[in-house]
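Hey, can you fold this one?
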Amino acid sequence: MDIFPNTIIKIFSQAIFNRAVSVADRYHLMAALLDRELLEAELQAVDQLVHTIQPR
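Sure. Predicted structure:
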């Protein structure tokens, strides 16, 4: 069941535009990750998001 089509790509695009990831976006991202298998482009977007928002 694909509840969140393109959610990760949308969040990635919003994060680039806003230079931030909201709490709601983080929960949507988590739900999308747990709900389904990801496309290669989505996996790359998640990797970039994680490397960008992780504390240093």
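The first helix runs from residue 7 to 18. Let me know if you want another pass with a different chain boundary.
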